[in-house]
Amino acid sequence: MKYKQIYTNNIVNDFKIINFISIHKKQNISKLMLWVIIAIIPGIVCQIYFFGNGIIYQILLSIITAFICESIALALRKLSIINHLKDNSALVTALLLAISIPPLSPWWLVTLGTIFAILIAKHIYGGLGQNPFNPAMIGYVAILISFPIQMTNWLPQIKLKSISTNALTDIHIIFNNNTISDIILDKLTSNFDSVTQPTPLCEFKDDLLTNSINKILKISIKKDLINNINWKLVNIAYLFGGIIMLNRKIISWQIPIAFLTTLFSFSLISWLIMPLKYASPIIHLFSGATMIGAFFISTDPVTSATTPRGQLIYGAIVGSLIWIIRTYGSYPDAVAFAVLLGNITVPIIDYYNKPRIYGYK
To answer: Under DSSP, is residue 12 helix (H, G, I), strand (E, B) or coil?
Structure first.
């Protein structure tokens, strides 16, 4: 919140009194969410380039589902549908969830995730401002745990040009549960030599199990330079969007800086100690959902810490949890789990980091 101070002078019994009147600068939830949407566009465009038009269809499907669920919940709660839809919070939730789901996933996957995010994670707690957990990440984790195969099937659609797919083909694949053609599906699942997981960290783990220790470093470097460049550029695009939000003061710097610094430190120390066992800091920082998690997910003002010191602690917790889950966990990426676990700690963080009351030492 930004305030402008206006000084008014009053003379009372020869004493000069200066009054501070704080006038709120025009800024509302709708405008804040709109800037989040603008900042996320570069990353979405980059994802569409590397992974195809399926991203667009999933975004549209998620937005439509979110608006329907939001309208139903508001109607049941006897609240103004139009006024609450204007705050753009449901739109942001739909965007964050849609871009986290692999393209060409069945239509019901993104629909279920969005329904869970809006109705369960948001409105069951009382709506915007009352939810203790990030709604998009609740929806993501719910379908990740329920449908792990579909949620880890990231196919680099830029390769689909070799089998002459088009927009209509993508729609058929999404809305026919990936059964448009046995020939196309065989090519989709067998003719790729690029990333097929949400993060290259899974490939690094697979290399540890399937290759000799002397070949791991060579294989990982080759994949890092050739096959995973798409995820690096996607993360750079989201980093650019995060800088836009920092410049516009939509988010504070404490959470993303603490998030990225902690993740970098943990991964650097482990990589320096055992480079053949642990992924490098570059892989951690520019793989999967690292940048979108640092700037767009963990900075949710409702579910993150409120004070500057608390935000530093919260960001450090999320960053460290990401490294731990990625390194020792079984799921390919860890941003959603780390953010939700971080959300649990927010009440404690805020309780022990209350700002000092003015007038007390």
So the answer is: strand
Residues contacting 9, CB < 8 A, separation 6+: 16, 17, 18
Residue at token pair 């949620």: 151
**DSSP label at residue 11:** E
Q: What tokens appear for 159 in the block?
A: 């390769």
Q: What are phi and psi of 20, to 5 degrees?
A: -105, 115
Alpha helices in 147-253 (DSSP H): 148-151, 167-175, 182-190, 201-210, 213-222, 229-247
State how far the Cα of 206 lies from the Cα of 226, in Å rounded to an integer: 17
Signed CA dihedral, 194, 200, 202, 208: sign only? positive
Backbone angles phi, psi at 21, to 5 degrees: -110, 115
Residue type, 65: T
Spatial distance between the Cα atoms of 105 and 151, rounded to a whole number of angstroms: 8
Tell me the pLDDT tens digit for each residue of 2-31.
544 444 454 445 544 444 444 444 557 888
Dump pLDDT digits (tens) for 79-127.
988 888 888 999 999 999 999 988 878 889 999 999 999 999 999 998 8
Instruction: Give the HSE-up count for residue 93: Cα atoms under 13 Å, Cβ half-sphere.
Output: 35
- Residue 267 burial (10 A CB sphere; 0-12, 13-18, 19+): buried
User: In this predicted model, what pLDDT tens digit does every residue of 150-170 receive, in sequence order?
Assistant: 777 665 544 444 444 566 666
